[in-house]
UniProtKB/TrEMBL annotation:
Gene3D superfamilies registered for this protein in UniProt: 2.60.40.1190
CDD domains tied to this protein: DOMON_murB_like
Biological classification of the source: Bacteria, Pseudomonadati, Pseudomonadota, Betaproteobacteria, Rhodocyclales
Region (Disordered): 1-29
Ranges of compositional bias, category Basic and acidic residues: 1-10
Protein name stated in the entry: DOMON-like domain-containing protein
Organism: Thauera mechernichensis
Length: 206
């Protein structure tokens, strides 16, 4: 399902570790919760679009709520359960998009004109491809986002990125993971957390 590093296209990839928000259960004691390590990898697909992979390793999957497989359709409220999220912003503009990928195969794409100001009437005209597999100690989700779902930017423009996850535990608590967190309450929409760069534009070769 997921490409190994040796099988991935010869394009720049970024792999980062996500960390829990300080308000998340067990955040103060590393390794005490059911999630051992959460890594995220992203790269621009040569045919256009982008690929995002989220990987839970050294984890106790039996202590998590993993949504059961469902038809791969758009659905709201996925963030209320275990869900992996991507935020893409346009540099210098307040606009951004939010992508939700559930282990169930369901997904959501939202467009915003500013902080939590959703664009009325926006509807995704294409669908991402989601694959997910897990065993007792790990879970891997891969989402392939077609170019038509990315924010429209001029050639040579990179996108600002935040990678995040909501992890639901069987004790009913939610953990919030991200590359960078807002200081107070968890807020994946905070623009200063969009600290990564995705180079999606085609550049002429020297």
């Amino acid at each position: 399902m997921s490409h190994s590093p040796s099988e991935r296209p010869k394009v720049p990839t970024i792999t980062v570790g996500l960390r829990p928000h300080p308000s998340s259960p067990d955040a103060a004691v590393a390794g005490s919760g059911p999630v051992g390590r959460l890594l995220a990898t992203m790269y621009a697909a040569p045919e256009g679009g982008a690929v995002f992979e989220f990987r839970l390793d050294d984890s106790r999957i039996d202590r998590l709520v993993v949504p059961a497989p469902q038809p791969s359709v758009a659905a709201d409220g996925l963030w209320q359960h275990t869900c992996f999220e991507v935020f893409l912003g346009v540099p210098g503009e307040p606009t951004y998009r939010e992508y939700n990928f559930s282990p169930s195969g369901q997904w959501a794409v939202y467009a915003f004109q500013g902080w939590r100001q959703r664009v009325d009437g926006f509807a995704a005209e294409q669908a991402p491809e989601i694959q997910c597999a897990h065993d007792a100690g790990s879970l891997v989700l891969e989402a392939r986002v077609p170019a038509g779902l990315l924010p429209a930017v001029p050639p040579g423009t990179d996108l600002q990125v935040s990678l995040a996850a909501v992890i639901e535990r069987k004790d009913g608590q939610l953990e919030y993971w991200a590359v960078r967190h807002a200081p107070a309450q968890p807020d994946f929409h905070a623009r200063d957390t969009f600290v990564l760069t995705l180079a999606t534009a085609t550049r002429s070769q020297p």
